[in-house]
């Protein structure tokens, strides 16, 4: 059965509602847990509509249940409803034996049940996943690209009956990061903060939204400026744990360092206050924080660090080496720079392994 894009899946569910015929097996997988959760809730509500939910729904985790129990529930006839719904999560953790126990459901799907299997990162080369991909309506939920996040912020706001100005949506992205579940948590906080108001402004975001990602980048660049490799690697791990991909992290650090460099240049021009903030392209209410950190950097070290970042970005996009090797190398190189005393001709560092 061909795989579906998320929008195709939602369209197919609308058709299934009209016809009253849902597919017997669905398989959701991917890295974006928020989108998977949204799709699960939508399919569950639609497929159980008109029936007694309490008697016809089961939710299992593969790590906590015997597969014969799952199979028995799928094969049980629905009670006072056209169908049953059974969700089995974390299927990527299942053993070959457990897959074998479920295999009869793939060979002869139960028409009166909707079995929804959910997994994270899967190995499509394994036989059981290949069989599942052939039999199930399969949807992969990938993490959105960096340039799509502001659009998702607006979408999540609309789902909560809020509107948000473009600059505020961009600010939410910058402060929170790429994790849609965390963005939704912040939107819920905004909704409580606004009360009866429905438009989200930059000032609202500044007052209410956590600066989790921004603080992580601040801490990382501060530890790099101090030459503390161990602490820098720790902050790097924090960014990865927040769901940032390697290329995105390099781009965030580069953006942050460009802001620091613009601040130093602006100060040399005699700029201050709102004019300096405009020159550095940062909100005026964050100027003090950026300016404080900029004092720990020389312009030369910022320029050379940006060169290392550019080389690392190219390496991540083209090198077969593990991306973590390039990130660790980035930290070691930038922390080790003592460029204030180096002549201009030797300022550009080389990254080991780059050609």
Notes on the protein architecture:
This protein is α/β, with parallel strands linked by helices and 355 residues long. The chain folds into 3 domains: 6-141, 3-Layer(aba) Sandwich (Rossmann fold); 146-208, Helicase, Ruva Protein, domain 3 (Orthogonal Bundle), CATH 1.10.8.60; 212-346, Zinc Finger, Delta Prime, domain 3, CATH 1.20.272. It contains 16 helices and 7 strands.
How would you sum up this structure in a few lines?
The protein has 355 residues and is α/β, with parallel strands linked by helices.
Outline type = elongated
- Please write the CATH class name of the largest domain: Alpha Beta
Q: Mean of residue pLDDT?
A: 85
- The CATH architecture designation of the largest domain is 3-Layer(aba) Sandwich
How are the strands of the biggest sheet laid out side by side?
A: 2-3-4-1-5
Largest sheet: 5 strands, parallel
- In whole angstroms, the N-to-C terminal distance is 43 Å
CATH topology of the largest domain: Rossmann fold
Q: Which stretches are poorly predicted, pLDDT < 50 over at least 5 residues?
A: 338-355
**CATH H level of the largest domain: which superfamily?**
P-loop containing nucleotide triphosphate hydrolases
Tally of distinct domains = 3
Q: What is the share of helical residues?
A: 55-70%
If you compute it from the alpha carbons, what radius of gyration comes out, rounded to the nearest whole angstrom?
Answer: 25 Å
Number of helices: 16
The arrangement of helices and strands along the chain is HEHEHEHEHEHEHHEHHHHHHHH
Task: Tell me the strand percentage band.
Answer: 5-15%
Structural class: alpha/beta
Secondary structure tally: strands: 7
Subunit arrangement of the protein: single chain
């Amino acid at each position: 059965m061909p795989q579906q894009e998320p929008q195709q899946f939602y369209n197919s569910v609308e058709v299934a509602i009209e016809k009253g015929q849902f597919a017997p097996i669905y398989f959701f997988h991917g890295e974006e847990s928020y989108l998977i959760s949204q799709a699960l809730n939508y399919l569950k509500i639609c497929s159980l509509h008109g029936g007694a939910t309490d008697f016809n729904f089961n939710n299992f985790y593969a790590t906590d249940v015997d597969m014969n129990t799952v199979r028995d529930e799928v094969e049980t006839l629905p009670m006072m409803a056209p169908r049953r719904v059974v969700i089995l999560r974390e299927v990527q953790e299942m053993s070959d034996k457990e897959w074998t126990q479920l295999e009869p459901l793939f060979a002869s799907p139960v028409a009166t049940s909707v079995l929804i299997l959910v997994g994270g990162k899967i190995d499509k080369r394994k036989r059981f996943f290949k069989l599942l991909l052939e039999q199930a309506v399969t949807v992969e939920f990938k993490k959105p690209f960096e340039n799509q996040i502001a659009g998702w912020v607006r979408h999540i706001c609309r789902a909560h009956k809020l509107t948000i100005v473009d600059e505020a949506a961009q600010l939410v992205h910058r402060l929170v990061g790429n994790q849609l579940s965390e963005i939704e948590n912040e939107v819920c906080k905004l909704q409580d903060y606004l009360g009866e108001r429905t438009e989200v402004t930059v000032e609202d975001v500044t007052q209410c939204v956590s600066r989790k990602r921004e603080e992580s980048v601040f801490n990382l660049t501060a530890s790099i400026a101090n030459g503390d490799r161990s602490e820098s690697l720790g902050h790097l791990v924090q960014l990865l744990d927040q769901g940032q991909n390697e290329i995105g992290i390099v781009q965030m650090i580069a953006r942050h360092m460009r802001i620091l460099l613009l601040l130093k240049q602006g100060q040399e021009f005699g700029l201050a206050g709102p004019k300096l903030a405009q020159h550095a392209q940062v909100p005026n209410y964050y100027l003090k924080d950026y300016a404080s950190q900029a004092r720990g950097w020389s312009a030369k070290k910022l320029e050379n660090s940006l060169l290392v970042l550019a080389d690392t970005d190219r390496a991540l996009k083209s090198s077969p080496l593990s991306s973590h090797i390039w990130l660790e190398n980035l930290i070691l190189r930038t922390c080790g720079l003592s460029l204030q005393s180096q002549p201009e001709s030797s300022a550009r560092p080389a990254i080991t392994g780059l050609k």
